[in-house]
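Example record

The entry below shows one chain as it appears in the dataset: sequence first, then structure tokens.
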Amino acid sequence: MILSALLTSVGINLGLCFLFFTLYSILRNQPGNITVYSPRLFGERKTQQQDEFNLERLLPSPGWVKRAWQPSEDEFLSITGLDAVVFMRVFIFCLRVFTFAGIVGIFVLLPINFLGDQLAEDFSDLPKKSLDSFSISNVNDGSNRLWIHFCAAYIFTVVVCYLLYYEYNYISLKRIAYFYSSKPQPDQFTILVRGIPASYGSSFSQIVENFFTEYHPSTYLSHTVVRRTSKIQSLMNDAEKLYRTLGHLKSKNSRQRYKRDGFLGLFGQKVDLVDHYEKKLEDIEDNVRLEQSSMAGEEVPAAFVSFKSRFGAAIALHIQQGINPTEWVTERAPEPKDVYWPFFSASFIKRWIFKIAVVVAYLAITILFLIPVVVVQGLTHLDQLETWFPFLKGVLSLTFVSDLITGYLPSLILQLFLSVVPPIMILFSSMQGYISQSQIEKSACTKLLWFTVWNIFFANALSGSALTMVNIFLEPKKIPSLLGAAVPAQASFFIAYVVTSGWTSLSSELFRLMPLLYSFMKRLFVGKDDDDDDFEVPSIPYHSEITRVLFFELLGVTYFFLAPLILPFVLVYYCMGYIIYRNQFLNVYAPKYETGGKFWPIVHNSTIFSLVLMHIIAIGIFGLKKLPLASSLTIPLPILTLIFNEYCRKRFLPIFKAYPTEV
């Protein structure tokens, strides 16, 4: 990719960001958009719709930036919860890392790369200069200047590890303080028992009571057997919506109580909505009573068992209960609003089979995703595109068209394909037998992260060749040299990817186009008065957002000394993300559950992987640059990093698995 193609991509995305920011600052002030841009506040009834006209609403204003910046971390914690604070700490950590990296990369490494003459390019026509001239590829083979890159890699690793340790320790203390300050919750005294063995003539409730009375007589308190109540739960949800609707209608004037019962409320006979909904509510209550009367035989082999103390629950949780390890299986009970019910009745064998099926499906979709990657890589090389489609030669000769195709379209197409993957990962994780939504989201986050690293980073870095990627496993000794040759060559693509997928995705997150369109269509066809009948405050999809943030961290760390031109773009992404996500947490998203910061170990592991990957590439690139001594002296770096990771794992990870007895 040439410099003008990158500038074209940056210009397009800057224009989109400015457009989204401007529209957001105007649309957020409109009364009808409260449920789109302030659903959290609307759900808590901290803001109300106002109908009077005000000219100031039509003028863009950056006041939302100040309001998002103002709350302290303690205030932010009290409003949004610890998971949101940990998510924002990821941005703070990355801002610190890439501020240091940007200073070293832009003011030290970038001039050294640019002044090299390995690629022997003409400086007279700068817009047509390849971006490779700003990378380590332009430094002469065997040059002593490469020792500066070597020193930068060591210093950068030390700084990142120090900041990583500081954040791990800080968040661990926050997690313990959060536990201290919170009230005792029922789930802290409760465990879930699955695989309860059936006994002829006894119900599961009797079996559970007899077992825990015998083996945990001093700590056992009570139990609740899980029942198949999906029909009742559905009826209860319908009844709750009807109650809200009736309350809403009774608070309005009499004219708004009547509506036609035909298509879209435009045709048919007029009916009294209050009478109509009250009759429906009576029918639902009758159905609930009918279902409850037939529930006696609906027990499943799972039960929530409560204890007199947290210590008693912890003992029962960590000790094998039965001789057969597939029976009396215990796990920590999720908080009530975090429970995921479908797999409570699943047997050990069924869960095991489903896990194997998910692994096979995951591998299949990972391989299939290489197809769009190959297509995208074809767009980055005009000569290949002209070979595939010779009739486009005339169009591709136009400068703007070629810059648009090579600089903007590949990243955009890849992002569109990638947008369908997060729901698939959630589906896969929900099939693995987890009993809480937080477990499902953590599992989906891990799956999506490694899917993104493999298919976006490695597949593109290795030019989308499946054969080349297979050779990595067949000849592991060649991994450093292979990555050292391939990764720097794709620096220009990933710079454009940060701008397209990073900057624009952040501005679109703020603009919330799909909720805006949904709200508009709902008011158009349903009516303004029904806006909040079944209104639900959204929650942030941590599995996709954390993955995106960590992938840009991987790009920044990996290309720190290879192509430091990427660092300003990554730094701008984290600056924008810090303000935008603070605004979203304060105004848009409400926590669906609280894990107490359990997503941080995923962040830590991803950062360690990024550092080790950078070290492996450094070993390969110094070898290719005919500096074998630097290559050999880099080998201790990944070893020391992994030792540091093991220390952090022993020191901090247990705090994220369970709270210690001392607290």
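Notes for this example: Residues 97 and 160 are 6 Å apart (CA to CA). The chain has a mean pLDDT of 82.
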